[in-house]
Amino acid sequence: MDLNTVWFLLIGVLIIGYAILDGFDLGVGIMHIFLKNDDEKRIAMNAIGPVWDGNEVWLITGGGALFAAFPIVYATVFSGFYIAFMLLLTALIFRAVSFEFRNKVESNSWKKFWDWAFELGSLIPALLFGVAFGNILEGVPVDKGDVFTGSFIGLLNPYALLVGLTGLSIFTLHGILYLSLKSEGELKQRMLKSINFTWIAFLILYLISTIYTIFSFPFLFEGKLSNLLFWILLILLLASIIYIPISAKAGKIFHAFLSSSIIIASIIGLSAISLFPRLVPSKINLDYSLTIYNSCSSDRTLFTMLIIAIIGVPIVLVYTFFIYRVFKGKTVISKESY
Description:
The chain is mainly alpha-helical. It is built from 13 helices and 2 strands, in the order H-H-H-H-H-H-H-H-H-H-H-H-E-E-H. It is globular, with a radius of gyration of 20 Å.
């Protein structure tokens, strides 16, 4: 295993960490749309209030790692997805500000505005992350000179939108399970009732997107079916999908939440195996694809960054564990709450 492969794996781990942790944040924000009163909305915001900003550290770290390890990929993808990323960042900024501003003025219209900022700031990123993921899987119009030749409208193609909706559904389910863990009474009961509907929606969308992928992008499966890790992740994925309604019905919500986390990790892992060693397949010609070898930094840079990662990642993990340990249990609101 060379440094290029190690960094491929490390960036994959960072993406998985972000998707699992901020995934339920986004899901809670989406469910915020359907909550009935101010107390329920405050419980939802305070359920993720202590952890959401720490969860987004994984996104920043992943972007920084991509820039350092594979700068050509960073430059090509960010230039091609520029409008989408600006929309994404705007949504995330408004979402962040809504936490601090919502309770500053005792006005229904004021609170309603920041509620919409929080909700759209969760829904739009959840959808756009999936759309970006779908575009990477099907291939991006990159020419021989590593230049993106497509358009923003071209990114909103049927397959990418389908993957976007699939991502939106699993993040919503993930958020419902987390909010079920953090709430009590009527709110918890309504979250429990919504699990099956959201699970069915995800299952249907995932099956459709998988069939679409198999028949439209066979290059993703070339030589992968003999990979043992591919089958391990596939079994984990299918077992976790089946186990969610079973564990939810049995009242084992934490087990269901772990299952949704495994689903997210498995989907990303299977996609990484399918792409490897490509990072960005070229829709124009697969020979123009950006790989871990033709888009990487020097070996010295990769080695230096690896040392930093070996030191830094455990610190992030310890911090994350500590925060969740401190703020475990049900969410209780007070005057000082969001």
